[in-house]
Design goal:
The chain is of the alpha+beta class. The chain has a domain at 48-183: FAS1 domain, CATH 2.30.180.10. Helix content is 37%, strand content 16%. The chain is built from ten helices and seven strands. It has helices at residues 3-18, 48-55, 59-68, 70-80, 92-96, 100-104, 108-116, 129-132, 219-224, 239-260, and strands spanning 85-90, 119-120, 138-140, 143-153, 156-160, 168-175, 178-183. The strands form two sheets. Strands 2-1-7-6 form a four-stranded mixed sheet. The protein has a three-stranded antiparallel sheet with strand order 3-4-5. Strand 4 and strand 5 form a beta hairpin. Helix 3 packs across helix 7 (108-116). Residues 1-23 form the signal peptide. Residues 201-233 are annotated as: Disordered. Keywords: Cell membrane, Glycoprotein, GPI-anchor, Lipoprotein, Membrane, Signal. Pfam families: Fasciclin.
């Protein structure tokens, strides 16, 4: 064998030793694409008109909401905002306790403010009221001037306005973003009812004085008159004084008749 052939063999052996065979990487298994995360479910649409018609029913409150178009403000807040809404609905008997003139004398703007006053522009569950009671007041839809005070005492929740302090008597509906709570009184703001509280009972009329006769004195007047035969200072004889004189005249007349007999 020639030297050139031997050199080629040695070179080939050296190359085979110095460069190990590269292992083939197995192909990655086929994986289906991961599904996109499901979108958050949209909040359930709550028809407030239907809810208030069926749940209470709260006909008087709903009629005022429709009359003042406050229902549109509440409905938009309930279904088109992230904050939600909390509504305080007076029961029917709460309106019955008001005098007819209390709401009948209000202007349309005052009525609108009054019923905007019955809701917070945010959803609150019953448990949230415990924290709200630590605040001085919570603004309503009617604005910062028209705020309500929350009192939470051993689970009893009171909603304080200027002229009323009704309590929550039941939870009508409470699923975010809408909460509706029944209260046992109408909320009355001082800015509208600036005089005496509308729920204060009217003072009882004074008893009509009994008119005495100008001719014959009453029995009480006779008993109160002094037992004297003297004439009154007005110049005429008093009733009591005239009685003995009449008796004397009758006695004298009867004596004269006996003498003539």
């Amino acid at each position: 064998m020639g030297l050139a052939a031997i050199f080629c063999v040695i070179s080939l052996l050296a190359l085979s030793i110095s460069s190990p065979t590269t292992a083939q990487t197995p192909p990655a298994p086929f994986l289906p694409p991961s599904p996109a995360p499901a979108p958050a479910p949209a909040p359930h649409f709550v028809n407030l008109t239907e809810l208030l018609s069926v749940a209470g029913p709260f006909h008087t409150f709903l009629n005022y909401l429709l009359q003042t178009q406050v229902i549109e403000t509440f409905q938009n807040q309930a279904n088109n905002t992230k904050q939600g809404i909390t509504i305080f609905v007076p029961k029917e008997s709460a309106f019955a306790s008001l005098k007819k003139s209390d709401l009948g004398n209000l202007t349309q703007d005052q009525l609108r403010i009054l019923f905007l006053y019955h809701a917070f522009p945010k959803y609150y569950s019953l448990s949230d009221f415990k924290n709200l009671s630590n605040l001085n007041s919570v603004s309503t839809f009617a604005g910062g001037q028209y705020a309500l005070n929350i009192t939470y005492t051993f689970g009893l929740i009171s909603i304080g306005s200027d002229w009323a302090n009704p309590k929550i008597t039941s939870s009508v509906y409470s699923t975010a973003p809408v909460a509706v709570y029944e209260i046992d009184g109408v909320l009355l703001p001082l800015a509208i009812f600036s005089s005496d509280p509308p729920l204060a009972p009217a003072p009882a009329p004074a008893p009509e004085a009994t008119k005495t006769s100008d001719i014959t004195p009453t029995q009480s007047a006779i008993g109160a008159a002094p037992k004297s035969s003297e004439s009154s200072t007005s110049g005429g004889s008093s009733y009591i004084a005239s009685v003995p004189l009449l008796n004397c005249f009758v006695f004298a007349l009867s004596g004269s008749l006996m003498l003539t007999m």
